[in-house]
Amino acid sequence: xxxxxxxxxxxxxxxxxxxxxxxxxxxxxxxxxxxxxxxxxxxxxxxxxxxxxxxxxxxxxxxxxxxxxxxxxxxxxxxxxxxxxxxxxxxxxxxxxxxxxxxxxxxxxxxxxxxxxxxxxxxxxxxxxxxxxxxxxxxxxxxxxxxxxxxxxxxxxxxxxxxxxxxxxxxxxxxxxxxxxxxxxxxxxxxxxxxxxxxxxxxxxxxxxxxxxxxxxxxxxxxxxxxxxxxxxxxxxxxxxxxxxxxxxxxxxxxxxxxxxxxxxxxxxxxxxxxxxxxxxxxxxxxxxxxxxxxxxxxxxxxxxxxxxxxxxxxxxxxxxxxxxxxxxxxxxxxxxxxxxxxxxxxxxxxxxxxxxxxxxxxxxxxxxxxxxxxxxxxxxxxxxxxxxxxxxxxxxxxxxxxxxxxxxxxxxxxxxxxxxxxxxxxx
Length: 428
Description:
Strand content: 5-15%
Structural class: alpha+beta
Oligomer: single chain
């Protein structure tokens, strides 16, 4: 049996489908428990293997019988068995959601008689997307530990099991099967003009699908991000008359202008910097230290550049951490806020999805995520109007929308989109 001949287990094990489905759900919840560890430790740079799970307050080492997915949380009523500190319901939700996702992917496998390797590839993708979603929502990052590991796994796995990219039964019908992958098919036809034996090599076709998935999926998003940086990368504020900017540990505000601005909305990433062209600056630390710079004397219009990043405020050679800043006042006519149109973590995520699923799926996921993100942005805008806010400012991570679109594709393929927009040729 070649790699392109899926095991004919479906009819044989049909009577055992309910029992197998229960087992799949249980397996999914255990993976969900592991994903909880990843979500907590990866942003902190900690090992996801050691030490074993402990209570974050009393450091009690959680026993195996207290770590049974879903069941243990319910029996312990969401609290540590020793110090009774509340355990977030997020742990329960992630375990249950992962179990359900594994089960839905399993049902699609069964209904469409996939090659078995596709199941494990889709489970890996689903788990990665769950981890990415919760990390990005809290920390506004998509960790390389997930995306780059997934990208490497996609390349190796796709070459070992080309059936995850080429759904055929014999080498002779590969050309016909590739017609369901329109982008890859176009390139394979070009290659076949000089190298006809490409249709006799499933691995070569899988390698082409992987390559195009990475280049087109990640490349398009990267290009969008670069264009976005040119247009929206920085937001300049200028005033004809000087205004007073007040800074604190939580953010800043412009005196006599509505709405404070949180540092979380401005300094989203570690590399973000707020640049202020200061005419005068005064600041005080929580320890009572004071600093003052008067630059605008006798009509002098000179300014100095004051920068604020996650490490703190810098005024020339002086620096004070944001956590030590009791307050600061800056007289300014110009300041520049950083804005990131698209994080490179999003690009790597689409590259990972393209490597696993091919270019057509990556582009469909990207388009769907854009629709989800746009709808959410409109919702936020309408919500701010209804609540009568003078302005709203919020960073919207794109990773969760990519993850939602990716999960939707894993569970439905193009079936949902074909029903909404017409009967197209399934991509896979």
